[in-house]
Specification:
three-stranded antiparallel beta sheet, alpha+beta
Amino acid sequence: MVTVAYISSPFVAHIKLLLPPTARLSRETLKKFTNSLPEDALLEIYTLSFIGAPRRTMVRIADLYPVRERFGLVNYARDTTFLNTLRPWWTGKVARQFGVHSGQKFKSDPGVWDEVGRAIAKQKRK
C-alpha cells in the first residue's frame, strides 16, 4: 500500500492553462499567446490522492522545471520550501512533484501543451 501511494501521488489527472480574455478570442490568438508565454502564466494542475480525492495546485510556469525523479514517474517539479514554511504542520505539504506524461493533452487545442512543455523545458532549477 505504501508503494502504491508513493508511486501514484504525482500523477496529473487534469491541467488547465488560465488564459487572459484576449487569448480566448480565436485559435490564432491562442497560438500567439502560447508561442510567447509570459512567466506569470498560471497552470491549474489536478492530481489525485491515494484515496482518489482531487488536489488542485496553482503553479506559475516560471516556477516549474524539468526533473527525473521517482523512477522517471515525475518529470516536473517546483521549489516549495518557502510555501511549506507558511503552512501549519497539520495541513500537509504543498505539492512539489508532477508527473505529466505524453498521453495528456489540452482539450481546446492539442498544440497548447507542446508549447507549455517547451516553455517549462527552458526553465532551470532555482
